From TrEMBL:
Residues 23-32 have a biased composition (Basic and acidic residues). Keywords: DNA-binding. This is DNA-binding protein. Residues 1-62 are annotated as: Disordered. Residues 13-22 have a biased composition (Basic residues). Residues 86-147 form the CSD domain. One of its GO terms (cellular component) is cytosol. GO terms for molecular function: DNA binding. It comes from the Bacteria. The keyword DNA-binding applies. The keyword DNA-binding applies.
C-alpha cells in the first residue's frame, strides 16, 4: 500500500498560505469599510487661474480670453540669420604632427581650438590669422583659418 503524498510539512504550509490569504482579504474589507469613500469625485483637484489647487471646479464664465487661432505657430520657430563675423587672432600653439592647435583671439583673449581640416593656409606658432567660429563637440572651434 502506497503512502500518502501529503506530509505534515505540506499540510502546515498550505494552512499558512490559506491563513495569509484570509488575513489579506480581511484587511482589504476593513480598508474599504473605513475609507471616507466617494470614489473619484473626492480625489479630483482643480487648478484656478493663479495656479492654486482647489476642490471646486473653475467657473467657465470668469476671465475667459479669446485667442486668435491664426496667431499660434505650430512647429519649430524660424531661425534668424546669424551674422558670422570674421575674427582675428594669433596662433598660440600648433602641432604639425598631430594636426591641431589653439588660436588666441586678439580682442577678447579667448582661446579656440583649431584642427588642420579647418585651415586654408599653412600656419605656424605666432602667425596672425583671421578665422570664423563653429560649434564643435567640446566647444567653439576655429574654421576657415587664413593668414593675415
Amino acid at each position: 500500500m502506497a503512502k500518502s503524498q501529503e506530509t505534515f510539512n505540506k499540510k502546515e504550509k498550505e494552512k499558512k498560505r490559506l491563513k495569509k490569504r484570509q488575513d489579506k482579504q480581511q484587511k482589504k474589507e476593513e480598508r474599504q469599510s473605513n475609507s471616507p469613500g466617494g470614489g473619484l469625485d473626492n480625489m479630483i483637484a482643480y487648478l484656478d487661474e493663479d495656479g492654486n489647487i482647489t476642490d471646486t471646479p473653475p467657473d467657465p464664465t470668469i476671465k475667459k480670453k479669446k485667442i486668435d487661432a491664426k496667431s499660434i505657430e505650430i512647429g519649430v520657430p524660424k531661425r534668424e540669420d546669424v551674422v558670422e563675423t570674421v575674427r582675428t587672432g594669433r596662433i598660440e600653439f600648433f602641432n604639425d604632427q598631430k594636426g591641431y592647435g589653439f588660436i588666441k583671439e586678439l580682442e577678447t583673449q579667448e582661446k579656440f581650438f583649431v584642427h588642420v581640416n579647418g585651415l586654408i593656409d599653412e600656419v605656424r606658432e605666432g602667425d596672425k590669422v583671421s578665422f570664423e567660429l563653429e560649434r564643435g563637440m567640446k566647444g567653439m572651434n576655429a574654421v576657415n583659418v587664413k593668414k593675415v
